[in-house]
Amino acid sequence: MRRTTHERHAGGLPGPQRGKGGGLVPVLAFAGITVAVMQTLLVPVIKDLPGLLDTDPSNATWVMTATLLAGAVATPIMGRLGDLYGKRRMLLASLAVMVVGSLICAVTDDLTVMIAGRALQGFAMGAIPLGIGIMRDELPPEKLGSAMALMSSSIGVGGGLALPGAALIAQHADWHALFLSSAALGVLAMALTALVVPEPPLRAPGGFDLVGALGLSLGLVCLLLPITKGSDWGWTSPLTLALIGASLVVLVAWGLFELRSPAPLVDLRTSARREVLLTNLASIMVGVAFYAVSLVLPQLLQLPASTGYGLGQSMIVAGLCVAPLGLTMMFVAPVYARLSARRGPKVSLMLGLLIIAVGYGAGLGLMSAPWQTVVIAVVLGAGIGLAYSSLPALIIGAVDPSETGAANGLNTLMRSIGTSVSSAVIGMVLANTSVRAGTAAVPSMEGFRISFGIATAAVLVGLALAAFLPSRKPAAHPVLVASSEGDAVLAEAEALVAGGAFGGRVLDSDGVPVPRATVTVVDRRGRQAGLAVADQEGRYVLPERPGAGDVLVATAAGYAPHARSAEPPAGGGRPGAGADLVLPVSGPARRTVPEPSAGPTRPTPPEAPARARRG
Question: What are phi and psi of 582, to 5 degrees?
Fold first, then answer.
């Protein structure tokens, strides 16, 4: 592995040497699952929280609300900090804060202290976009699709798997053991991350936008607080309306400030691009759909059979019936990678939304037996898995590599907003349609069906939004898996020649490859006509040849941009001919040197560069 002076200047942590991502993916996915477990940890005991904390039900809900608010605030902030100061460092920090929060909750019965601990747990939500960013920086292209799919789905996987485990602990041990288990998972995730995950060298320019972070935090709290507490406070109460109005004022002012900031927390101009904006809006709808099933099925399964529609199952059985939701999401990840490679992430997203709609539609008539809830969970898990897996690929394809953490943090925030809206709306529906069962009010079958109908409507809105996403054609050549680094270069070159695609390498002035550089094709009218990101060896591939008069523009952090004509070599060239791009250093010299601790490096086969360059 080579390390640049840019990495040392940025304060990159010394870490394991990057290989081919053998242990990287499962470790990052485990970190994501750990975070998701923390979110659903208290679901089995949520109805008992008022008694456990000796408080009113309205106050007990703050134990869940605090985690939601903290996660929403932390997600975009941790993503930006990761882009600036190191994604691995911020991932470890997120997990450490979660462990501290878990330990605080494990030793207290005081409501105020419990809320503080749960808020600290919520800061771990930033681990999801940070993990996706590390994967983009470290993995070869042929492994990136399935890896991002698994990481993106880890929220659902962890949530589904945590339900039966948390129910088992809550039923047979003191409820504080739930927090001890989450702390143990967090420590294990930190240890594995420190041992296996490297610190990517890529850094975003600029500094941290503290004013922007404070403005976004205040705006989100003012927006999400009335959404989550509206049922308790009243949707037309002065407090609810005042907070919603304040959120609009603060977020508008924050947006104007970000547009004028030289180094904004969130690049709103990038976020306003059609692909990014529509993907984020669709993410809200997917979040609504995902949380609806988590609210409905466990309650339906645990309601007593005396109600006439309840299935009368224990807490553990209910968790086991819902667990296939997360398992199916996990198994769908490799399917998504193949589908996306052939059809693109837009098609994968639309197919996932269609499957979710089918699952909820079928669920309207499949609520009379436990096995039917398992069928619903499997179908919805497949659809949600496909949809969640598509979102980071759509975002990454539209933003600069140095903005990966912040962009995916914003996307994860959109999902959180969707789950918040789902929780508020469906909670209100179930409360307003409840019926009396003895001395208690319980959700009715009408309420469950209305909730499924709301989820279906959200999915259809998401499908309409996804239809307007720009289509991205898959590469014209197959992805080949080679047995060695030299063979990979040769195999890709041969595939390019056979497929008639266009490619080359991005190099610095010394002829050293520049990894993760962005190559953009600009047509005669100044419009983007193509986009590719170079791999770790500087190779880039455009699925279609640029047209006459098109220009290639290469950019990378630490280098000045470089543009050149995309015209083929004299004589027309051969199929697969392309162009190498040389980036001049920007600012202080940024020379690459072998890393002292890396040991001897294997020389690149002499014929590989000659056969890989096509200019």
Answer: -110, 120
Q: Are 393 and 347 in contact (CB under 8 A)?
A: no
> Measuring CA to CA, how many Å separate 307 from each of 54, 293, 295?
29, 20, 18
Of 535, 572, 534, 573, residue with least CA distance to 552: 534
Per-residue pLDDT of 327-379, as tens digits, reads 888 777 777 767 877 788 888 899 999 999 999 988 888 888 889 999 998 99
To which H or E segment does residue 442 belong?
Answer: strand 440-442
Q: Give per-residue pLDDT as tens, 253-307.
A: 998 998 888 878 777 877 888 888 899 999 999 888 888 887 888 888 888 888 8
- Which of 11-15, 60-64, 395-399, 451-455 is the least confident region? 11-15
Report whether 412 contacts 284 (CB < 8 A).
Answer: no
CB atoms within 10 A of CB 218: 17
Angle at alpha carbon of residue 43, lines to 40 and 44, rounded to 5°: 130
Distance (Å, rounded) from C-alpha 389 to C-alpha 395?
11
Distance of alpha carbon 156 from alpha carbon 152, whole angstroms: 9
Who's near 319: CB < 8 A, 6+ residues apart?
44, 163, 164, 165, 166, 167, 168, 298
Model confidence pLDDT, tens digit, residues 390-421: 888 788 777 766 666 667 777 877 887 888 78
Q: Please identify which residue in the block is written with the tokens 């640049």.
A: 4
Q: Which of 381, 341, 8 is nearest to 146 (CA)?
A: 341
**Between β-strands 2-4 and 592-594, what pairing exists: parallel, antiparallel or unpaired?**
antiparallel
**CB contact set of 545 (below 8 Å; sequence gap of 6+):** 500, 501, 502
Q: Which helix (H) or strand (E) is 505 found in, with range?
A: strand 502-508
Q: Rounded to the nearest 5 degrees, what angle is found at the Cα of 80, between the Cα atoms of 77 and 86?
A: 120
CB contact at 8 A, 366 and 376: yes
Phi, psi (rounded to 5 degrees) for 406: -65, -40
- Give the pTM: 0.66
Rounded Cα–Cα distance for residues 308 and 324 (Å): 26
Phi, psi (degrees; rounded to nearest 5) at 502: -125, 130
